[in-house]
């Protein structure tokens, strides 16, 4: 029977290979100087701590829960297919580009809000404007 560390290591290795990354490439994406740390995780020789689980999950495009426990997060229950696709694409961007995308979304939402407000103002006049003069 495999240890928990070995089971976690298998999940890490499987996800890394699915992404087409070598141990060295994956370690570099995690900000680690050597691949030995990742090799130790994958072989089950080293236990993955919470901080490294978060770093690994981000790099592998998964959640720490899935990485450590093999359980998919609740996002599958409440995200639509388009939302999952958007999130998947967003996660692939470097952090600086993610920040730019958030700004773009915020600008676009403000534009839509302004458009809707102008439309409604033209369609529904205030009660004072709708009343008939008493003369």
Describe the structure.
The protein has 135 residues and is mainly alpha-helical. The protein has 2 domains: 4-77, lambda repressor-like DNA-binding domains (434 Repressor (Amino-terminal Domain), Orthogonal Bundle); 93-129. The protein starts with a helix and ends in a 5-residue tail after the last helix. The chain has helices at residues 4-18, 23-30, 36-43, 50-60, 64-69, 75-78, 81-92, 95-123, 127-130. Helix 1 (4-18) packs across helix 3 and helix 2 (23-30) crosses helix 3 (36-43). It is elongated.
Report the uncertain regions: none
Q: Provide the domain count.
A: 2
Largest β-sheet summary: none
Helix/strand/pairing category: mainly alpha
Shape: elongated
Strand content: under 5%
Q: Kindly report how far apart the N and C termini lie.
A: 93 Å
Superfamily (CATH H level) name of the largest domain: lambda repressor-like DNA-binding domains
Strand tally, please?
0
Radius of gyration: 25 Å
Count the helices. How many?
9
CATH arch. level architecture of the largest domain: Orthogonal Bundle
Order of helices and strands: HHHHHHHHH
Estimate the mean pLDDT confidence.
87
């Amino acid at each position: 029977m495999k240890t928990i560390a070995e089971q976690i290591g298998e999940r890490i290795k499987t996800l890394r290979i699915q992404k087409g990354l070598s141990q060295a490439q994956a370690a570099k994406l995690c900000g680690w100087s050597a691949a030995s740390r990742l090799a130790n995780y994958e072989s089950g020789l080293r236990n993955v701590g919470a901080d490294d689980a978060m770093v690994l999950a981000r790099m592998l495009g998964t959640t720490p829960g899935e990485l450590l426990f093999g359980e998919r997060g609740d996002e599958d229950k409440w995200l639509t297919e388009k939302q999952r696709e958007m999130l998947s694409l967003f996660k692939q961007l470097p952090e600086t580009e993610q920040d730019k995308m958030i700004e773009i979304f915020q600008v676009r939402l403000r534009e839509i809000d302004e458009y809707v407000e102008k439309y409604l103002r033209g369609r529904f006049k205030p009660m004072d404007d709708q009343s008939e003069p008493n003369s």
